[in-house]
């Protein structure tokens, strides 16, 4: 009798091979050694990212908010790959990179909550821990369920958490501290609450 043992986690290289074959309508992430599907964003999600891109360009034309297409390596916590809704970095920062980039030089990651059952674990727990573990200075969460913007700063890679968290309801001004250096008037976000 042959006993088969199931390997609990796949290798990053195996994930990258699988991810390269899926159609454009599917987005995969590699979280804690497992493949997970990332839901396709709705129109309001896209409009929030567009709004944020515009604000970033107005205040910091030397930076660009790369939306949804930029994959980051986050091995320090997840031993995997993560695709934020937005990645703020100097304009041209990812030139010459492949699909997955080292997070060095990234100033901020952005997530906008989705209307799915996994958003709590993914956007409020796992992703901030992953971003803090690799030392990304600012994590901005636009929480549509709570109608609030949550700014995570002062990452502690050793504990995989942000030491400072500021929560502001939609409508308040929010400071994205250095190295981002932008103040956002979040009143327009009230338009994207359903």
TrEMBL record:
<feature type="domain" description="Putative restriction endonuclease">
    <location>
        <begin position="12"/>
        <end position="185"/>
    </location>
</feature>
<dbReference type="Pfam" id="PF05685">
    <property type="entry name" value="Uma2"/>
</dbReference>
<protein>
    <recommendedName>
        <fullName>Putative restriction endonuclease domain-containing protein</fullName>
    </recommendedName>
</protein>
<dbReference type="InterPro" id="IPR011335">
    <property type="entry name" value="Restrct_endonuc-II-like"/>
</dbReference>
<dbReference type="InterPro" id="IPR012296">
    <property type="entry name" value="Nuclease_put_TT1808"/>
</dbReference>
<dbReference type="InterPro" id="IPR008538">
    <property type="entry name" value="Uma2"/>
</dbReference>
